Amino acid sequence: MAARRWLLLLFVGLAGGGAHGQVDNLGFVSIDCGLPENVVGYVDNDTKLRYVSDMGFIDTGTNHNLSAEYLKPSIGRIWHTVRSFAGGSAGARSCYTVRSLVSGLKYLVRAGFIYGNYDGLNRLPVFDLHIGVNYWQTINVSVAGVMAEIITVVPGDSMHMCLVNTGSGTPFISSLDVRPLENKFYPHADESQGLVLVSRTNFGASDTTFVRYPEDRFDRIWSPWSNSTIWSVISTTEKVQNSATNGNDTFEPPLPVMQTAITPINSSSPIDFTWDAQASTTNNPKPGYVWMLHFAELQPTGVRQFYISLNGKSWLMNGSCTPNNLSTTTLYSTKPVYASNQYNISLDATVNSTLPPIINAAEIYSVIPTTNIATTVQEVSAISAIREKYRVKKNWMGDPCAPKNFVWNGLRCSYAASSPPTVTGLNLSSSGLSGNVSSSLASLRGLQYLDLSHNNLTGSIPESLSQLPSLVFLDFTTNQLSGSIPSALLKRTQDGSLTLKYGNNPNLCGNGNYCQPPKNKSSSKVVVYVLTPIIAVSVIVLLSIMFLCMRRRMQGTTSNHVKSQDEANITPLHSQNNNEHDSLCLDNRRFKYDELVAVTNGFERVIGRGGFGKVYAGFLEDGTQVAVKLRSESSDQGVQEFLAEAQTLAKIHHKNLVSLIGYCKDREYMALVYEYMSEGALHEHLRRRENNARCLTWRQTLRIALQSAQGLEYLHKGCNPPLIHRDVKTSNILLNANLEAKIADFGLLKAFNSNGDTHVSTARVVGTRGYLAPEYLATFQLTNKSDVFSFGVVLLEIITGQPHILNDPEPTSIVQWVRQRLAHGNIETIVDVRMHNDHDVNSVWKATETALKCTAQLPEQRPTMTDVVLQLQECLKLEAARNDVNA
Ligand SMILES: *[C@@H]1O[C@H](CO)[C@@H](O)[C@H](O)[C@H]1NC(C)=O
Ligand SMILES: *[C@@H]1O[C@H](CO)[C@@H](O)[C@H](O)[C@H]1NC(C)=O
Ligand SMILES: *[C@@H]1O[C@H](CO)[C@@H](O)[C@H](O)[C@H]1NC(C)=O
Ligand SMILES: *[C@@H]1O[C@H](CO)[C@@H](O)[C@H](O)[C@H]1NC(C)=O
Ligand SMILES: *[C@@H]1O[C@H](CO)[C@@H](O)[C@H](O)[C@H]1NC(C)=O
Ligand SMILES: *[C@@H]1O[C@H](CO)[C@@H](O)[C@H](O)[C@H]1NC(C)=O
Ligand SMILES: *[C@@H]1O[C@H](CO)[C@@H](O)[C@H](O)[C@H]1NC(C)=O
Ligand SMILES: *[C@@H]1O[C@H](CO)[C@@H](O)[C@H](O)[C@H]1NC(C)=O
Ligand SMILES: *[C@@H]1O[C@H](CO)[C@@H](O)[C@H](O)[C@H]1NC(C)=O
């Protein structure tokens, strides 16, 4: 019976009384969808309510006029236009967002749909409506049009109303009304269920009388229903009192509605009305119904007493109803009723009644669950701020996470059973973002994965991101970011809890790239990254002056380099003699020379030495033990290499790479301050086996090998562009007090062009003899497989306890030595005897095989460091299994 009523409403126009509504302060939202852009709004002639354009409520869809034959004066202005959402496929969701609502308050939401052949296709669509994150109803648009209405508690201060394309035509909408109720109204509607209107009937009204605002202060629409063949109309002009029915629960049917009623013409006939149960969704095939029957006696001329029955069964516990004179009684079902296919309500006079039954008004609602939980207000406002800032198009409408199958593109959410969904992933890669990095990202407290790569983001990386407790992946690759990477983020990459990618941001300090030289200066084909200035201008000027001085001095001394026996020619990484001012652009602490003197107690204790100079032990003010690598005047390591190492260390952070605490560039003094590795180099431990001193077990050395492999893997896989260490050897693997291994000495580190090149060519071979890959020696062609070769040599040293070059009696490489011995004997002929057979033989075999693969002649036959890591993990498992058995 509902549809026929709406038809009348829509085509007859609204015929409310002539009262003057105070639209401004009612809390009403009245939207005429699809109004032309230049029309802000207008006052509706009938309700005197101000209708506004939907522009501020939605940013998708297109405006259309109904086709000409429907644009008659008889049809209200509100129906003349629609907004339609073409182009979406099934599952596409388009949402209106209504803001400034009262959180937790009950609202009536009403949407109207008149098709009017607006698209010229003459095809009536079917689509779904959602209220917030819950299904509301399916709209099967009829020629006459459809109204949908729901009474619902709005959980937040804004509400989404969404149209969902179900693959049966293009969703559209004509109007949207939102009216606040009072919470004591309609007690059935609460946080977990809503009431979807089936019909709201004003019995006895003339066919054209639709009562709504202002007669109904909540602007409910009461449709007329009378039938002169079976019912006669009773009416009064006297006031009908409203009375609360059950404590505070109340419905307040408006006066004009209560002033008319019907009664059967045949006084012995009942009043009957019927509706069909309709599946709302496949999930909710048999919705429950609730209803309210409003009675008031208007003609007190005798005894009026009647029973009310539902589907033939007494509904009032066999009691009867006698309406009060000129006072409203509302009888309603307190709980949803789930009947069969049809609901029939019948009012029958009792035997003692001298008058037939009467009814003034009735409301029927189906009940829908609203148990889907929306994303929290904080998260919604954060992600909405991000959407506004970057003007994200995608499908970013409605709730970000819910319902599950409508999660915003690029978002990942987690759904716990009883708590609201949380945004855990955000991928805005290649989304054309510009401007700075939104501070709202830090409000997405559950964020684990954030990809902002390949955009045009500028400014610096906000410190606040490091406050995100669950963040494990952060990608800023290929943007225009500048400034330095917050140290708190770097710290997290260091402890291995965060993967941070920030390559190809030319102005970012601590960048995965070295800053690239201006294009007009660089002529070399070799990709050489040069340090460029980022920090404050004054510092740049200062440094550049310093640098020019130093370079001059260096040029004077390079020819006098004494090359160490062990090392091939060393070429500085930054071999180009460019004239730009180079500067350090580090986030780390900068030490003055005098401070270093204090830290090392006057360079008292030497703990190592190398081509660059000596390494001293020291303590910071807070007691942290450090190693200070001071570049000596006669150093083999050039200024550039020294800076390269500082730059590199400042930006790569991994638990298996030695970390830089600070640096010093003070007059002619240059130094790097590292974390202290109390157990020294792996090299020394292996040599120490010779003295049978405290000897590492096979399991310990395996773990050291695995950790070193992980450090190298990070350089090869975790950095952009990939980095090649170029000097992997046992003396560059340092151990801390817990015997955890970290790769050190990055002076020769080289960026490996990632743009599909197969190798980099270097002008000269650098590195350490005996560790160098054959193809690098032969052709100067460098790939990360060169590091793999060197690592293979390290692994063989660990297994055999032999130096990388043996005098056997001629100088022989360990690779040759092992291959020769294995060709003639078994594994025991190569294994370090000082391990006293205390090892799992399979584990040693596997490690040896891996080492031999690493040292294969052809680079393509060698595994990647990732493979090596996997193999070593296997070895460790085998060894651990043996230990467990023994224990
Ligand atoms: C209101 O009524 C006046 C007079 O009938 C008419 O000119 C005007 O267009 C109507 N306005 C709307 C918004 O329907
Ligand atoms: C709808 O009609 C009005 C005039 O009646 C016109 O100004 C407007 O451009 C039309 N809108 C569309 C989308 O065609
Ligand atoms: C929509 O209504 C039409 C006419 O009543 C009916 O034939 C059609 O099956 C309905 N479609 C859906 C999806 O309910
Ligand atoms: C009035 O009631 C009669 C009998 O139930 C029915 O046949 C007729 O269709 C009804 N008329 C209207 C307009 O509802
Ligand atoms: C009516 O509301 C008042 C105030 O909120 C409350 O104290 C009272 O218990 C309510 N009565 C009923 C019957 O719910
Ligand atoms: C009035 O209704 C009763 C019961 O439904 C029926 O028996 C009787 O014939 C009806 N009278 C007329 C005049 O229709
Ligand atoms: C109502 O009356 C019927 C018989 O007239 C009886 O079977 C039933 O138990 C009664 N129900 C109540 C709730 O009193
Ligand atoms: C009808 O009235 C008689 C006498 O007043 C009373 O005994 C009987 O209970 C009444 N029946 C009903 C159904 O109210
Ligand atoms: C980034 O912004 C600059 C300057 O506005 C513009 O020239 C460039 O095309 C943008 N690049 C991308 C990928 O959007």
Walkthrough of the structure:
With 887 residues, the chain is of the alpha+beta class. It has 5 domains: 4-181, Jelly Rolls; 223-369, Jelly Rolls, CATH 2.60.120; 391-509, Ribonuclease Inhibitor (Leucine-rich repeat, LRR (right-handed beta-alpha superhelix)); 558-675, Phosphorylase Kinase, domain 1; 682-886, Orthogonal Bundle (Transferase(Phosphotransferase), domain 1). The strands form 13 sheets. Strands 1, 2, 3, 7, 10, 13, 14, 15, 19, 22 and 24 form an 11-stranded mixed beta sheet that branches. The longest helix has 22 residues, at 537-558. Mean pLDDT is 81; it is low at 1-24 and 511-585. Bound molecules: 2-acetamido-2-deoxy-beta-D-glucopyranose (9 copies). Its main location: membrane.
Task: Give the key terms.
5 domains; alpha+beta; Jelly Rolls; eleven-stranded mixed sheet; disordered N terminus; Leucine-rich repeat, LRR (right-handed beta-alpha superhelix); 20% helix; binds 2-acetamido-2-deoxy-beta-D-glucopyranose
Bound molecules: 2-acetamido-2-deoxy-beta-D-glucopyranose
State the secondary-structure class.
Answer: alpha+beta
CATH first level of the largest domain: which class? Mainly Alpha
Count of distinct strands: 48
Here the CATH topology of the largest domain equals: Transferase(Phosphotransferase), domain 1
CATH superfamily of the largest domain: Transferase(Phosphotransferase) domain 1
**Overall tally of structural domains:** 5
What is the helix content? 10-25%
Please give the CATH architecture of the largest domain: Orthogonal Bundle
Tell me, rounded to a whole number, the average pLDDT: 81
Rounded to the nearest angstrom, the distance between the terminal CA atoms is: 82 Å
